[in-house]
Amino acid sequence: MALDPETLGQFIDTVRRYVRERLIPLEEQISRDDAIPEEIPAEMAEMGLYGLSIPEEYGGIGLTMAEEVLIGAELGHTAPAFRSLIGTNVGIGSQGIVIDGTEEQKREYLPRLASGELVGSFCLTEPDSGSDAASLKTSARRDGNGYVLNGTKRYITNSTRAGVFTVMARTDLDNKGAGGISAFLVDAKSDGIALGRPYKKMGQQGTHVADVIFEDVKVPADALIGGVEGQGFKTAMKVLDRGRLHLASVCVGMADRLIDESLAFATERKQFDTVLAEFQLIQAMLADSRTEQYAADTMVRDAAAKYDAGENTAMVAACAKYYASEMAGRVADRAVQIHGGAGYISDYAVERFYRDVRLFRIYEGTSQIQQIVIARNMLRTWKEAH
Ligand code: COS
What we know:
Blueprint: H1 5-23, H2 27-33, H3 39-46, H4 65-75, H5 80-90, H6 95-100, H7 103-115, E1 120-123, E2 139-143, E3 146-157, E4 164-170, E5 181-187, E6 193-195, E7 209-219, H8 232-266, E8 270-271, E9 274-275, H9 280-308, H10 314-339, H11 349-356, H12 367-385
Parallel strand pairs: 1-4
Antiparallel strand pairs: 2-3, 3-7, 4-5, 6-7, 8-9
The chain binds coenzyme a persulfide.
Coenzyme a persulfide is lined by residues 92, 122, 124-125, 131, 133-134, 178-179, 233-234, 237-238, 240-241, 314, 363-365, 369, 372-373.
């Protein structure tokens, strides 16, 4: 249910103040330590951030997509690791249950995901299956009343904190395509689950990704999302459609922060006896960044409204994610350029963000995958109409 405008305004304000007063001052520390201070998860839980997208009847705030993207943009103003902390509970780690779960699954998991007591994580990618998600090999063999899972999942965000994994695994071993895949809710403490060492990454320090290895992991029959085999790929795609919109909103916020950093530097720094901001070539970069950030913001809000109206948003979500993530890359590049030599030095936030934003063009579907999704939808609509 949508919040009334006043409550929404207050919530946005609270998040904005928290980002500016509490999180931004911690950015250098988390970049250096590659760890989020221990108090932060509890503070975010207290604000309800883990439950942004979880319906109120299951203990969440139940924001509409149009509201969620506004919060996503606020969180985008700081190091992405903070957003990632709640990101899987808000997105890929809870939405499989929200969208396709049984009533029992919703009651079992959603309240704890909403409160942050339980961290959800999404296991789709594998060593040999990235963009071609339908080719995944992790198997779920029927065994008495339940299933036995075997396989390796790669680069799994928040796996080191997770209490429950949404695992896409092949239940029909004869069907090598999307139709053979089912989605399971697996307790992270189950026997047979091992985590790899967190990977060392280019950026986004403070967020940890690791492999999750399943070796003869027994799960009960009611762990199957929705109780129906063969639907797991579709569940994953629906979750990603929504996740892509959320990520696009984070890119909008990040670009805004990069523009702020650029303005702050350009209005202080002098060359040729003039502040940089007076130079038209610098102004051109600032103007391009603002124009593109505004365009992405508008796309995200429009796509979110369509999502809330119940329209099929696979294409517009892909458009928004594709444009907003590429835009954030260009804005980060210009921010570094405006900073000149300082932009290459770690003391300046833009150096860190330049590395952080690189991931937006890759995870939850690369730009090339978004292009494919967009074009396929265009062609389908064209063929249907002609
Ligand atoms: N919503 C609901 N169902 C969807 C869907 C969506 N957004 N997209 C596809 N499907 C359905 C299709 O309708 C099809 O169903 P039918 O067999 O009943 O017709 C089925 O899923 C298979 O779809 P498709 O044939 O399009 O699958 P492909 O193997 O061609 O894969 C892409 C499609 C490439 C788009 C998909 O694999 C993808 O998104 N890859 C990227 C994965 C990714 O984002 N990984 C990031 C890591 S997770 S953080």
